[in-house]
Amino acid sequence: MSNVSRLNIVLGFATIYIIWGSTYLAIGWGVETMPPFIMAGVRFLIGGGILYWWARARGAEKPQKKHWLTTGIIGLLLTVSGIGLVTWAEKTVPTGITALMIAMVPMWIVLIDWLRPNGTRPAAIAIFGVLLGFGGVAFLINPTDIGGLSEIDHLGAFLIAVACFSWALGSVYSRYAAQPKSQALSAGMQMIIGGAVLILLAVLTGEHTEIELAAISAKSLWSLVYLFTIGSFTYAVYIWLMKASTPARVSTYAYVNPIIALFLGSLLNGEALSNWALGCSVVIILAVVLIISTKARAQKIDMGDSEISTTEASDSEQIAGDNSETAAECC
Q1: Structural domain of residue 224, as residue ranges?
Q2: How far apart are the first and last CA of the chain?
Q3: Overall number of domains in the chain
Q4: Which label site among 3, 48, 93, 142 has the fewest CB atoms less than 10 Å from its CB?
Q5: Mind listing the pLDDT tens digit for each residue in 35-53?
Q6: Residue 317 region, left (φ>0) first, then alpha (ψ -120 to 50), else beta?
Q7: For 227-264, how does the pLDDT look when each residue is reduced to its tens digit (9 = 90+)?
Q8: Domain contains 1
Q9: pTM for this model (two decimals)
Q10: How many CB atoms lie within 10 A of CB 140?
Q11: 262 in any annotated domain
C-alpha cells in the first residue's frame, strides 16, 4: 500500500507489539479473582461478538453453514484448548514466562506443516531453530532442578505446552479449511464458538459454583474489559497491517511480545526474573528469530523469480501470517 503513511505503519506495529505483549498480564490479573474458564469464555463471547458485528457492518458476507463447522474446529483448537489452558495455567505460572513459552508456537507450526501429508520441509537453519527453541523451553521448565533450581510449576508449564501445540495445529488447519472471505468475520465466529464451549466447560467443571460477584476485584474486572475491547481492536489493527506491510514482518511479534510481557510482569506484577530464566529467554527468542527470518529470506528469493515463484512466496507468507493470526487469537 503505497498510500499508507510510515507513521501509521509504525503505530500499527507498536500496537501489536505492546498490547499483545500486555494481554498476558491482563489474563494473570483476571484469574486472581475470577475462575479461568468463565473469564476466558466471557472474554471471547463478547470480543467475538464485537468482531462479528464489525465485519458484517463493513460489508462482510453472511457466513455459510459449512463455515460454522470449520471455524468451530479452529475455535476449539485456538480459543478452547489454547487460551483456555493458558488462562488456567496463569494461576501458577508467571505472566512473562507464559508469554515466553508461547513463543514455541512458530516452532510447532514448522513441525506440523512439515509432517502433514505433502508437507513443506523447512530449511536446515529453521530445523536448528526448532531444536534450539525446544531446548531453551526444556531448560526453562528445568525438570532436573539443575543447581537446586526449579523455575516454574510443572503442571502449568505442561498445559501451556499443550496449548501451544493446539494453537499451531489450529493455525495450520485454518490455512487449508474453508472459511469466510473476511478474516475478521472468521475470527469473530471462532471466538463466539470457543467462548460458548468455555462457558460449558466452566459449568461441567463446577466453576460456576465458585464465582462470587462481590469477590471480583476491580483489577480483574478491568482486565476482562481490556481483553475483550482493546484486544479485539488490536486484532483489527493486525488485519490492516497484513495488507499494509508483509506477513513476515508482522510475524516479528513472536519475539517482541515475550520481551514486553517479561518487562511488564516484572514492573507491574512484581515477578522476579532469575539469571537462569533470562538466559533461557535469550535462547528461546533467538530460536524464534531464526525460524521467522528464514521465512522472510525465502519470501524475498521467491518474489525475485517468476510469477510462479511469487505464488510460492505467498504460500510462505501465509504460514508466517498463520503465526500472527494465532497470536491474535490467543493473547
Answers
A1: 6-330
A2: 27
A3: 1
A4: 3
A5: 999 999 999 999 999 999 9
A6: alpha
A7: 989 987 887 787 678 667 766 677 677 778 888 888 88
A8: no
A9: 0.78
A10: 20
A11: yes
